[in-house]
Amino acid sequence: MLKVVIQSVFALKNGLSRRGIVRNYSYDSMVNSIKNYFALRAGVTPPYNHVCQVGDPVLRLQAEPVDLETIPTPEFQKFIEHLIAVMRNYDAYGLAASQIGVPLQVFVIETSEKNYEENLKTTSAGQPLEIVPLRVFINPKMKIIDYKIFTYPEACVSICGFAAHVPRAKSIRIDAFDVSGKPFVWNAVGWPARIAQHEMDHLQGKLYTDKMDPKTLSCVVWDLVNFKEGKLAMDYRPHTRSKFRSFFYT
Ligand SMILES: [Zn+2]
């Protein structure tokens, strides 16, 4: 049924746009309506088990602060556990709540010993890494401590398949609340500071592509596309143990 509808939409688009009758806006609205209809019928609602992709309006929202009284509730604790689980399923180094469809001021970061050792075997990131223990940030406020800029490759599980060089400040400080609702101060330099700045951007509806050096934007498998003569498919499910894992880190 879905296939028939989509085929009909494409036929409609091709036919009508050849005649110059339909504007792109009308076509996009129609496709979105169909997608939303089937998503709702399938009962797919946030928080998702998958990561939203660029173009999803939720990734451009200013995240709302969490009411501190809700932090101890079983529902919120379950949500935090889910956010951590999705981050780990994607082998990401960080994940913001908006990336699973919930525009709240929450993000998690972690670079496990396993991920650290795996990434040492690659040259993709090109920057010194370090192990970062799991940490939950609720209602975080960031202050840049050292404005010296470092530019390294960066990617995002919400922009699957691409990477670019992104300038980030060397050192930051974050004031936030932890998963038990207690305030804490977190100082970071280098790698963890980069991840946290990326996640802080998510909370403001910004993506790394807003700050990247545009000339460095690359498909992370452009050479494989040539080798395989284009016979490659993108999978938006978790990339656990994927050989491309090192490119998808925040
Ligand atoms: Zn991201």
UniProtKB/TrEMBL annotation:
Key words, A-Z: Hydrolase, Metal-binding, Protein biosynthesis
Top-level taxon of origin: Eukaryota
EC number: 3.5.1.88
Signal peptide interval: none
Keyword Hydrolase in annotation: yes
GO cellular component, one term: mitochondrion
Recorded catalytic activity of this chain's protein: N-terminal N-formyl-L-methionyl-[peptide] + H2O = N-terminal L-methionyl-[peptide] + formate
InterPro entries in the record: Peptide_deformylase (IPR023635), Peptide_deformylase_sf (IPR036821)
Listed NCBIfam families: PRK00150.1-3
HAMAP family assigned to the protein according to its UniProt record, in alphabetical order: Pep_deformylase (MF_00163)
Family of the protein in this entry: Belongs to the polypeptide deformylase family.
Record function comment: Removes the formyl group from the N-terminal Met of newly synthesized proteins.
Protein name: Peptide deformylase
